[in-house]
Give the backbone structure.
Amino acid sequence: MRRKIVAGNWKMNLDKVSSQQLIRDIEDRKSDAEIELMVFPPFVFIDGVADEAKQVRVGAQDFYFENQGAFTGEVSVGQLKSVGASIALIGHSERRELFGETNVVLKKKVDAALASAFDFIFCCGEPLNIRKTGREFDYVKVQLEESLFHLTPEQMSNTIIAYEPIWAIGTGETATSQQAEDMHAAIRSWISEKYDSNVAEKVAILYGGSCKPDNAKELFACKNVDGGLIGGAALKADDFIAIANSF
Ligand code: 13P
């Protein structure tokens, strides 16, 4: 049985008080114990959110691949661990598009996380112009090949991947469940070709992009969709838990 994961990417939203209120509200609501819940607050609120979190895992939206030193404005894995984070996003499309993170840089982040036994969700997904020209499968495959496919089979088995088509993020335009399933199935088949079907079966593949309580059920019913990475709807405890309960 594959993992079931619902993760909330809070992006650059909330403040100290409202982030702690949100985690308390999430903790107060009931969700199936089988479903792993995670939240990714802005760096400065991780500490306070981790203090309030009991069942929910707390992670970071990004980190730098060096351990320490003269890297103004950056945060390391070790520093994240020291404030209660146990997982991080790597390669969110906003990091790639707005901050120029390349597949080469993201590979270094993957390696830094592994070196510190720190879990991560590796994000991938194509922009609209790539989808419009029918090149989305090649595009996502290269993202995985260049940043992730150097992992050992054991490392790959523990990996979580989030497929987030950029044209569906924050736009209200969800990928259809068929579009999501087709890409998730392709990702699993590439892992199977590179490693084997046992490894591919263990990797959790989440969908992200305008996932809401009213479409989560259909998306999560897809054979190769193991949960969601949620943006806007993760900022309301009721919606976040309703999505988690859509399995
Ligand atoms: P939305 O759910 O707001 O579209 O954001 C998705 C996302 O980018 C999660 O990382």
In short: The two ends are 14 Å apart (CA to CA). Strands lie at 4-9, 35-40, 57-60, 87-90, 119-124, 160-163, 204-207, 227-230. The pocket of 1,3-dihydroxyacetonephosphate is lined by residues 9, 92, 164, 169-170, 208-211, 229-233 (CB under 6 Å). The chain has a mean pLDDT of 97.
